[in-house]
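Follow-up to my post from last week.
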Amino acid sequence: MLTGNLLWVLIGAILLGVAAGLNGTFAFLQKQSLVGDAAAHAALPGIALAYLVFQQKDLPLLMLGAAITSALAVYMIQWIVGNSKLKADAAIGFVLSVFFGIGIVLITIVNQSGSGNQSGLNDFIFGKAATMAKSDLVWLSSSALLIILMCLLFFKEWKLMIFDPVFAKGIGLPVERLRVLLTALTVLTIVTGIQAVGVILMAAMLIIPAAAARFWSNHLGIILVTSALFGALSGALGTIISSFRTGLSTGPIIVLCAASLFLISYFFAPTRGFISKSLKKKTFKQRNVAKEATNHE
Amino acid sequence: MDALQVKKLSVAYEEKVVLKNVNLTIPVGHLTGIIGPNGAGKSTLIKAILNQLPNKTGTVHILERPLNPKDHTVGYVPQRNAVDWDFPTNALDVVLMGRYGHIGMIKKPSTKDKQIALNCLKDVGMEAYADRSIGQLSGGQQQRVFLARALAQEAEVYFMDEPFVGVDAATERTIIAILKDLKAKGKSVFVVHHDLQTASDYFDWMILLNQTITASGPTEQTFTEDNLQEAYGGKLFFMDQTKSNKSFN
Amino acid sequence: MNEFWVLLTGSLVGITCGLTGVFLILRKTAMIADAISHTVLFGIVVAFMITQSLSGFWMLLGAAIAGLLTTFLVQVLQSGGLQEDAAIGVVFTSLFALGVLFITLFAGNVHLDVEHVLMGEIAFVPWDTWDILGFSMPKAVWMLLFVLLLNVLFLVFFYKEIKLSTFDPVFALSIGLPILAMHYSYMTLVSLTTVAAFDSVGAVLVVAMLIGPAATAYLMSKSVSGMIIWSMTFGVTAAITGYYLAKLWNTSIAGMMAAMIGALFMIVFLFKPHDGWTWKLFKRMKLKDTNVHV
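User reply:
Got it. Predicted complex:
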């Protein structure tokens, strides 16, 4: 049943899930989850521009274009927030929608310029994991491996930088450069994933596994591992489920698998889940009532 | 007539008790200081009295009735940290917000409301800044505007949460003069305050608080070293500043 | 005549979204609007699955419910201990994915394709008309007028309440304003605005129209009423200039309108006298100069 290409897709989806799970956790802790969303939407004009300039759809070239506009979007959000009274949410929403709008303008131009729909740029909006070519999957996998490696290398530096930047600076860490590196890696994660799951749902790969993992532990190491595991599981399950029936896009199914894992975590996680918290509150209340009763005697 | 009557008030967040079995009875016409160390639950007490906390138990009566915003009996100066200072509005407009409770939903402020707002702004000495954006004012000026907003509520009982934090000396004098004026008019004022040096000059009634009430009554009876020691535990060293440096270590 | 209807639709989108967007910016809920614009897809698909019709009324109802559901779920996750940005991200991507899945499973043969939802087809607006009270106007125009009316009524009745509960919610609560009810009513309006607009211009342009003109107006104005006027002006300007540029370059009208919103914002952000970016840069350089001379 596992034909050669499906096996490659499966490997790619799992690696992408791990990479997004790790990287997304850092973005989550920086409270920058939605910046990832904006960066993903902003990849669209870059892809179209790269195609207009080079007139070919080699994945590395399109990824380069995507990376440039994504990074530009992240930089622009910071620039707007730093130089005006606008708050982060407004800046993110503004940059996201305007970049996406420009992307649609450019893609319409590409589609009308003869080579037409063969460019397949529309696939980048929703992703097409199941039908990716093997060479593209090799690109995806090696890029995902690089992201995983970097996250392991800079684990403790990023941890300290996010938790207490003042102290991190105090002990001589290059905080600004670390921050830029982390942003660059987030952009890389996004451009790695967009062909598979699309620009709109790529944000989900970054946000949902990390948010779900947060319910399981207060320990960053465990959160990272759990998030990576959830990412891998969603990638694998999504790929397998969508291969059962033709016409199902892989991206939405992967996201729905991640959402199911999130729901399970939200309710049943032992440390911070809803049920365990409500139980704790209840026993606390009962204890209080008992105490009050004895106090009044 | 009692301005404030609190019975068996308790507040807890998740597993942490913030206020425990608070009981208070305070007659009208006093300028009351709510005093206590950091984390004693001073702000929580005010929020609980004003019915802003879901997880409280106990009863509160203001002017011998349960709190009802429609009575317009209560004026409020919240802490300023929840306010968005970039909000596009000017000083007079902020003061006019104090009239919203009286105006009622849907209806527009009348010229009379605007006149009241302008007068309140004058009372705090800020009429020259009526058109100034709220974010362009200094901390002290912002606090005067917020006091003017509370005055515009034309209430009987006022609650103020740390009104002297981050303000200049002149503003502090203006505010305290206005508070004393309110008291002279028979209003009741409750002020969360943390500066023990000035407390006995400002207030004629004191509530000493540390999770529960350690003392409440006229200042000369409550503001004693023993009571303060009880409220502040071992952390009290202001009374004898020169020697206290040693015990501080 | 067709051009007139397209321009009118675009301008109405600009006015309605510009009006609604002001309080999105002031209440710091811009990203909830982004989330809602994605989840109305889910609401419309579910409404279609239940009623098997694509009539405007059911679409509006489905979208309004989806918008409320989004607002509610974000609030639930937040009170469950999840930070706001992640709560928004989880809710809207999940519901959007569910919407896309439902379309492929249950509504594949209907004219409800996802690209249409994302990008809209404002050029087709004039052909889909409704006759009400003897007037024949495009459906999109009717829906936008209706939602604009709701928005205006809401602001006429509750202007000072929404203003106060936005500026200082703690104080608003103390004088007895129902701030939670106001939040949900306002978010319902945002959902209705979104669905009325996105049928013609698509989900993404709706976000641009809701956030962009209001954000630009926020930089321009020192009062809420001034902000509302600027915001609507920017919205209409972007719609009209966007339309003609799209025609000139033969490209997506909705996309071009979004691009024009970006351009208007950048002009104000960079060149507004006194606090524009270049203005500040210039002042800083001048300051340096005088320092050198001293």
